[in-house]
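Hey Z.,

So I finally got round to the guanosine-5'-monophosphate thing we talked about over coffee. Here's the setup:
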Amino acid sequence: MTETVNQHGPVTEWGEKDNLLGPVVVSAEEIAKRVAELGAAISSDYAGRAPLLVGVLKGAFVFLADLARRIDLPVEMDFMAVSSYGTATKTSGVVRIVKDLDIDLTERDVIVVEDIVDSGLTLSYLRKSLLARSPASLSICTLLKKHGQQRVTFQLEYVGFEIPPHFVIGYGLDVAERYRNLPDLRIYLGSEPE
Ligand code: 5GP
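And the result:
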């Protein structure tokens, strides 16, 4: 990889020539270390149980894949996809389930794995909808939480990093489906998607 420079300092030229990649917010090394810590905490908290990891597509797929391999328990995995009414960055809080789970949640220890909590509206809605399915327990594990942005408060049992309220990409997070395969989390320098 080659180094180039834009007005925000050096950025690594990645994929197609792209000057929209901003500074690294969390590096791949920092992510790996924190994911290992989260996996260890979950392994200890859920010892003797077989939790069901529920990944929220698509953003959480990279995080879930790494986290699952750091949990030393017989976990199961399922995925759901939601789309929020409103714009991509400003959620209205009303969420439509686009792809539902295959596995029944009754009496399961559910851990919802999410990429980022911004306003919290999406997860708040999802949490209520999943609690209605009578799980034995439900906790939330989010890689990122944007500092000071939450419009609703609820328990976040596991948080990877609190970050400033920038729009970030990489490690599963996208802009119009691009950048999900960036190994680091970076600030996006383009205009935020509507
Ligand atoms: P919330 O409902 O908490 O406001 O936002 C939920 C969703 O908005 C996240 O799951 C994610 O899809 C999207 N989102 C919020 N902040 C960011 C960001 O900084 N980068 C990207 N790529 N998506 C974001």
